[in-house]
Amino acid sequence: MIGLLTRLALRYLAGALIAIGWSESDAMWFLGDPEIVSYITLGIGALIGTGTELWYALAKRWGWRT
Fold it and tell me: Cα angle at 5 between 60 and 52, to 5 degrees?
């Protein structure tokens, strides 16, 4: 059950990172270029989403409880 809840939480986190991104003030503080921060946020969200789905596929393939 915990695997299911963790997977769902990571899916929502990935979607939020991709959809929202960082605010412009955070971007200026972090890198100074909001466009670069948008790309980084998109990449992080995509990695979390991909990692979550890969973990799920491995769990199903190897019979882990999901």
Answer: 50
Q: Spell out where the chain has E strands.
A: none
Specify the residue for token string 């605010």: 23
Rg over alpha carbons for the chain, rounded to the nearest Å, is 15
Q: Token pair of 36, please?
A: 């670069």
pLDDT in tens, 16-50: 777 777 666 766 676 777 788 788 888 888 998 89
Q: CB under 8 Å to 37, separation ≥6 — which residues? A: 21, 22, 26, 27, 30, 31
Q: What residue type is 58 in one-letter code?
A: L
